[in-house]
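Example 290.
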Amino acid sequence: MVSKSCKYAIRATVFIASKAKENIKVGVKEIAEEIEAPEAFTGKILQTLNKNKIVTSLKGPYGGFYSDEAQLDLPILEVVNAIDGLGVFTDCVFGLHQCSDDHPCPMHFEYVKTRSQMYTSFKNTTIRSLAENLNTGLAFLKNPE
Amino acid sequence: MVSKSCKYAIRATVFIASKAKENIKVGVKEIAEEIEAPEAFTGKILQTLNKNKIVTSLKGPYGGFYSDEAQLDLPILEVVNAIDGLGVFTDCVFGLHQCSDDHPCPMHFEYVKTRSQMYTSFKNTTIRSLAENLNTGLAFLKNPE
DNA sequence: TTCACAAAAGATAAATCTATCTTTTAAGTA
DNA sequence: TACTTAAAAGATAGATTTATCTTTTGTGAA
Ligand code: FES
Ligand code: FES
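Predicted structure in complex with FE2/S2 (inorganic) cluster:
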């Protein structure tokens, strides 16, 4: 569905967001450990997220990554967009160059249902709500043991 | 969602199936042209589809690829399974090693809705029905112009 | 202002996916 | 049987994705 990089990005974003209520900034090393991803690669992904204004970064001592209030209210869709683009929500399942009702592939009218439900779900789920799920202790970012 | 190879595979399978009612076998070259994919690569994909019994092949003169009656009733899910595996229908959207209600990622209970709707759609759509959509002229395999 | 810290940027490498080419095997026909 | 046809199998190459390492830039504190 989404790339490995995008999964790392989602986990990193939600982790950073989960620290927002305490006004805590987190560094690449800590993030990489939490999301079980290689540190340098995590750095690259965070760079992209920062460029796309999904998270904010600050250099130097006491620096790190954090989410501001507006960023907490971004839909998780924006994380996918920043890393993979929106192709997953728009591409033809048969690989036709254009997906449209006027020149449909054989599965088009069935597939658009799936795809638009997917879009709605990612559009309506905010980073904040996912961070809250984490903070209540009812959801997890790390694999068990 | 699915890989480029998988899209080629879906298109090839539906094209072959669309010829079944006339008992026509089609060769790699013709298939590759129809699905707008490189010929040699199409051959590799057809090899995999044949190994997984999604389509049948026959070597030699008057040979080629065709679908038998049982293959026409396979869900399109089986094509995805043969090429990409079922990961798209089972993997955690956050990349956790196991997706489960007991150790959910922060989006789990939302995402399983999307994923299971996707699964149902691919499980309930047969190769035959897609081939029929093509044969009625209401759907297309090739890009316009 | 100097120093230490941490992210950004750039260059490089490994792994996977996509694509091509050559040789071998199987099937039908004369 | 000899011959032609077409897919299978194997080897190789290119492109993209994932991952690593080094150097530069920006920030805060002493
Ligand atoms: S044309 Fe294929 S999904 Fe719309
Ligand atoms: S645990 Fe992440 S989708 Fe189920």
